[in-house]
What we know:
Layout: H1 5-9, H2 20-33, H3 49-63, E1 67-72, H4 77-80, E2 85-87, H5 89-97, E3 104-108, H6 111-120, E4 126-128, H7 137-140, H8 144-155, E5 164-169, H9 174-182, E6 186-188, H10 193-203, E7 206-210, H11 213-222, E8 230-233, H12 244-249, E9 252-255, H13 267-276, E10 281-284, H14 290-295, E11 298-299, H15 302-310, E12 317-321, H16 324-333, E13 338-341, H17 357-368, H18 380-396
Parallel strand pairs: 1-2, 1-3, 3-4, 5-6, 5-7, 7-9, 8-9, 10-11, 10-12, 12-13
Helix pairs in contact: 2-9, 3-17, 5-6, 9-18
The structure holds iron/sulfur cluster.
Amino acid sequence: MSVPIAIVEKVTPGKACDADRSLTELLYHTEMASKVASHLPKKYMGLADEEYTARILAAKAKLGTKLVILGHHYQRDEIIRFADFRGDSLNLARNAAEHPEAEYIVFCGVHFMAESADILSGPHQKVILPNMSAGCSMADMAPTDDVLQCWDELQAIAGVQGQVTPVTYINSTAALKAFCGINEGAVCTSSNAKAILAWALKQRPKVLFFPDQHLGRNTAFAMGIPLDEMVVWDPVQPLGGNSEETLRKARILLWKGHCSVHKRFTVEQVREARAKHPGIKILVHPECTLEVVQEADYTGSTEYIVKTVRESAAGSQWAIGTEINLVNRLAKEHRDKLVFCLDPVICPCSTMYRIHPAYLAWVLEEMAEGRVVNQVAVPEQIAHWAKVALGRMLATV
Ligand code: SF4
């Protein structure tokens, strides 16, 4: 559905207003409408791997330059081998924008990534998510209506009203990126969170950071902001579980969300890796807890992890705290180094795993016949405001 621009423009940054109810409904319905899925036809179920491969390659060849397949680093090998580009969510969205000749962009990742690709790609391009149930559990922890409710509650507190800049991690819905665009906030990624948080604190004295509390906390802590100036906003409690006084004092308000993959890593795993492999380097993603990040040698985004291992010396040893498909691939591609996952129990991102070759074969064969299934299309006005928030990020870093 589309959001009438007049309604969006009526929203005063940092203030509750008459249009709030309409905005709530429009942003909320955008979130739901964009996830309408088609179901995998039975004829694609249970085929042999070779058959999926043959069908994917045939459809890919038929579509030629009309098609670009993007594969996120966390995708399984059976998918990543068909990708024209692999990378993290932002780089892949940029890849989409850099290939205007491609009419179809098949995003092998999760829903919010496909939305970002749709926002940044041209109007003639269609973005397809092979399986629409490939969401992100972290993004789902910040439903639009809960964030709008939080915003309303904050704006009703004297001393907090008008004092908060909203910042959303790129792992969030397009509707929340639009919310940040409307309310003079910005988007950040795990590689530029520090610069965006610094920018946000120059705009207003407080920041509401969502959906990942760990990225927010790790970043703010690394910037020298003490933990007692941070509070967690729990959306199921009045005032997020805080008092008005606490919220007046806090500088960083962290949404109570997390990544189920990165939250699994523990300090004990770090110590065990060090004990078993003296001299090993611990490299973790900033979605891990503060305790794990503090114990690690290096912390950085998915791209940073890939680059660090790639550029390290032969014979170096790495215990990595991130998604298992990426760690296993790094281990295979760098056999001259010791690379393993900090967590001895396999921990794939279960939603990324929903992109199975059966879905890829299905959407490509449909496309080759001129039919588009599982398109992710962000309504124009939502895309406009999300782009405003993304633009603030790009202008800052
Ligand atoms: S790894 Fe975590 S943040 Fe990334 S898509 Fe999976 S659940 Fe979401």
